[in-house]
Request: fold
Amino acid sequence: MAVTHADLAPSRRGSNIGSKTGVVLMVFSILLGLLCFVLCLMAEATRSQMIRDVSDDGGGETDGSECRYSGNGKTPLICAAGAFLALAIAMMVLHTHLLVSVSKSDPDPSLLMTWEIANDHLSTLTWQAAFFFITTWICFSVAEILLLIGLSVESGHLKGWSTLRPRCFIAQEGLFSSAGVFGITTVFLATGLSITALRAQWLLQDQENFRHEVMEASILYASPPRSLEDRIMTVGGETPIIRHDLYHEPGLTEYLRAFDKII
Reply:
């Protein structure tokens, strides 16, 4: 089977992780992560507090069994909901672009197994990608669970928050701020995963280009040599010399010149 130039040319990648679109989406996801962190801090600062109602029963003893909320919880509820959506969108954008880029790049990992030099790099990148992938989803899950807990607590007293009740459920101190820390960590870990995938893509491209160069060189040296012919050349006042040249197929001009000489 003949090898054509199309077979030797490197395959075009449908999508590159390091393209302008990939960089824009990565920056956009980081900004969403920062927005999530800021909203979590705002929710932490405005979260509802429990106020104990101190009353005297007439016998000199105070009864503090009833409580009420310091606010209706709308502000921390809106901030927590915005942080939840921002973090979810950031993860969806990063991982969707990563999956599309990897699926359309169509790499051939078997090429790397033929080169001993690339095995160490491939193993390192594989472990790095696994670390970033696992830690990203762990941090994302923890952040979203904390935000869901905060949302459920703050949404429980939107109405009648000033009414005295025997029990008051409030978000513990540091819940929203912890969610913000896990959220911003999630975005940075997801960015590290994208960078690791980009490095692996570059490594595959370099090895593929090297493979094509080796194929071109092997085809060039494996081609049979062209036949030689002896040509006698004469120089004025000197003896004829024999020159070994590559076989030269006469063209139309040489045929016309020979025909003119015959005529």
